Amino acid sequence: MSNNRLTTSWGAPVGDNQNSITAGHRGPTLIQDVHLLEKLAHFNRERVPERVVHAKGAGAHGYFEVTNDLTKYTKANFLSEVGKRTPMFIRFSTVAGELGSADTVRDPRGFAVKFYTEDGNYDIVGNNTPVFFIRDAIKFPDFIHTQKRDPKTHLKNPTAVWDFWSHSPESLHQVSILMSDRGIPATLRHMHGFGSHTFKWVNEEGEGVWVKYHFKTEQGVKNLDVNLAAKLAGENPDYHTEDLFNAIEKGDFPAWTLYVQIMPLEDADTYRFDPFDVTKVWSQKDYPLIEVGRMVLNRNPENYFAEVEQATFSPGTLVPGVEVSPDKMLQGRLFAYSDAHRYRVGANHNALPINRPRNEVNNYQRDGQMRFDGNGGGSVYYEPNSFSGPKETPENKTTPFAVSGVAESVAYDHNDHYTQAGDLYRLMSTEERERLVANIVGAMKPVELEEIKLRQIGHFYKADPEYGTKVAEGLGLSVPETVK
């Protein structure tokens, strides 16, 4: 019997896939046509809810190879020896747009990497920028609301965007990057990636350091002219997705070199910027880049939905040797990401092939929708127990760190939101500054309230007087005297 016969989902052969069962030639369709009912019911459910953020994305498989011995800093097994290769999967994405939105819009790009290590999966869930707009997760829903559609007009709302940013001066650094040339990468292959947050590495002796991840593209950084980006958005909205797929398909495998910055734990108390504030960077003069390894993408997905759409990432997907920091934004993401996956894909999302660890999984989690493995079989289903069920391994406990103070809602101690943004502006060439200002002016012109424009101009001016003055001039306004 042929192996390619059409069957129902329960494996029964389908006799007719072209005609419904009806009561006579012109009669109504019969409910007994279970194949028809199954096809229609499944079709109605073929779209899981799209991601609230990072809905539009592209992904690829590859490997990570260690090129430098950093075992004195971390006991993570996938980094344990030079030359070691770990399979991985990456998903690139835009942040604000819907699933069908254009690739070439001005937006940060998500840069989410899943390493399939022998100790379970490890996810680095970052962006193509080293900083973010906000530094406390409690502000995230409000921020994303401003990037989405107005509930009345169902249109993007520049007034909401700039109103929020003008009330949140910590966003200035990221806004300056977003509005610069790097706000629209030429392709997904021609941009850097960052873990953005501060993480903790721990070695075999339990000694820790703070780290930041930098994925440097080996293809070089290239960006799109705003007019060409707009043209592509209309003519080929899937330009970045297509470029990545075609490059890998023809054997032009994109690669990134992974570096880390390493900070001694005690430096966190004295560094001139709070090292856990994700709106700030660490100077590479203070903490130079140290090479870790090389990531190569060499295989396209066979099925977009199964591998890209159902892929789930969380900064809380950690392995021994890597721990979290007190970064307030990171702390919120530890919950929010996995919770989003439980809602969108299901409680058993980590059992799907694209997310399933390559090592054996042993726990006491049971049941839930779409439980498609053995569900623990008949083994013991609680812990502690007297039946040799899986037990914790104390050597893999998270290392302690000291905390003090009272429990209350508090902001970061450091509130210099202007120095690093100003430094970035001053690093740019004259032509880069002109394009930055032109991009900002074009984006701010539709803002309805002049007070919002003036408030934001004040932030630019505090970063660099020329920066604020040129934006003000472009908008036909003057820098407020209160900020001069």
Automatic annotation (TrEMBL):
Its EC number is 1.11.1.6. InterPro entries: Catalase, Catalase_3, Catalase_AS, Catalase_clade1/3, Catalase_core, Catalase_haem_BS, Catalase_immune_responsive, Catalase_sf. Keywords: Heme, Hydrogen peroxide, Iron, Metal-binding, Oxidoreductase, Peroxidase. It catalyses: 2 H2O2 = O2 + 2 H2O. Residues 1-25 are annotated as: Disordered. It comes from the Bacteria. GO terms for molecular function: catalase activity. Residues 1-22 have a biased composition (Polar residues). Residues 7-391 form the Catalase core domain. Belongs to the catalase family. This is Catalase. It comes from Niallia hominis.
